[in-house]
Amino acid sequence: MTAEPLASDDALAHVPLGRDHPEIRDAVRAICVKYPGAYWRNLEDTGGYASGFVKELTDAGFLSALIPEAFGGSGLPLRVGGVILEEIHASGCEGATCHAQMYMMHMLVRHGNAAQKQKYLPGIATGDIRFQSFGVSEPTTGSNTLELKTTAARDGDHYIVNGQKIWTSRALHSDLMTLLVRTTPLDKVKRRTDGLSILLVNIKDSVGKGMTIRPIEMMVNHNTTEIFYDNLRVPAENLVGEEGKGFRYILDGMNSERILVAHESVGDARFFIDKAVAYAKERVVFKRPIGQNQGIQFPLARAYSEYRAADLMVRAGAALFQAGRNCGEEANLARLQSSEAAWNAAEACMQTHGGFGFAREYDVERKWRAARVQRIAPISTNLVLAYIGHGVLGLPKSY
Ligand SMILES: Cc1cc2nc3c(=O)[nH]c(=O)nc-3n(C[C@H](O)[C@H](O)[C@H](O)COP(=O)(O)OP(=O)(O)OC[C@H]3O[C@@H](n4cnc5c(N)ncnc54)[C@H](O)[C@@H]3O)c2cc1C
To answer: Within its chain, how far is the Cα of 254 from the centroid?
Structure first.
């Protein structure tokens, strides 16, 4: 085992209990209430992007919470970014419209050079530069990131990028993208984790000049695309950190990503439980509220129990991250527990609503579909279990 018992860990002495950061929660909810279910359903009908919602969150400073103050953000702890996303989800809104900027921030702040930070961070903070797109997944290699096929070859002061990415969300609604590419062939590196690099790609400058973006129709409105790279020229100054070390930078950012999206699942669980409990009290069948039946009540009680446990693990992960401690175990446990708590709550909420759960105006089916995504993206449950299996329990690796 890699971690000491949680209770003896100093960093966890500061794990907040109760609804911490109440002013921030209230302010986020005050924005979300202006974007009710009808707004999201309409976007689904049109495949639209939540520009108004994202702009309002940006203008209020919520999306720059994790950007250092020196670059126009508020330099707040990861937990605050998570609380913002949690409230967005608990309100029935969608953090996927804007969360990538938060979860890529750690990578850019930690590994970007001074010129890159000066060039991009202030614009990201004001919303002039939309940094919402993250190109890692590929059609042929899937979860096996180390074998990804998109290459970038150095040519003078540029990299020439060739290959294909899939599931690159929000590419058509972003200005700047993080792109993971192979700069040294796999058979020429000492360690399999070497030879991958991160490029910052200016999307607007690239479309039609070696970058082709095609939307993918999906069961959720993530504005997801596939992207073809055909001799795209990217300035070498857009390389983040050192060439060949990109996978380490991605790994370094993964804990913050896991913890942030886990907050979203905690928010989803709250949404489903609140909605289901209210309905179970009010819906009367056989002359009694359906919530009086243990067949309805117990799944909700169980969902509540799972949500509370996940919430504690999410807070533990955020506290350890903030203390600069190793938080890989807690980040992965938080991710696993919260995505499962949200899904079980979604199922309980759907069942509680009976046929009305399928009626779009109740928003249960929309959030149910969205909650399902969290067990596959940004990382699938099996890969999290594999981390716990070999990284924490020391069992043999399956890959
Ligand atoms: C809505 C949505 C938005 C997304 N947005 C982005 C984005 O913005 N940027 C981006 O880069 N990607 C994005 N993705 C992609 C996402 O990260 C991947 O779908 C996810 O990581 C799983 O990869 P895959 O789909 O290739 O599955 P595969 O790797 O093909 O795996 C399929 C199944 O097999 C399992 N599996 C594979 N290998 C093992 C193993 N060794 N042991 C046990 N089980 C295994 C997986 O867990 C999974 O359940 C998005 C996906 C979705 C659905």
So the answer is: 10
pTM score over 0.85: yes
Six-digit token string for 95 = 């953090």
8 Å CB contact between 51 and 223: no
Distance 107 CA to ligand 1 centre (A): 21
Instruction: List the structure tokens of 275.
Output: 């909605």
Q: Which domains does the chain have, with CATH numbers?
A: 6-126 (1.10.540.10), 133-245 (2.40.110.10), 248-392 (1.20.140.10)
Q: Is the C-beta atom of 43 inside 6 A of ligand 1?
A: no
**Centre of ligand 1 from the C-alpha of residue 375, in Å:** 9
- Please report the DSSP string for 160-229 in residue order: EEEEEEEEEETGGG-SEEEEEEESS-GGG-SSTTSSEEEEEEEHHHHBTTTEEEEE---SS---EEEEEE
Mean pLDDT by runs of 10 across the 399 residues of the chain is 54 85 98 98 96 97 97 97 98 96 94 98 97 97 96 98 98 97 97 97 98 97 97 98 96 93 98 98 98 98 98 97 94 98 98 98 98 96 97 95
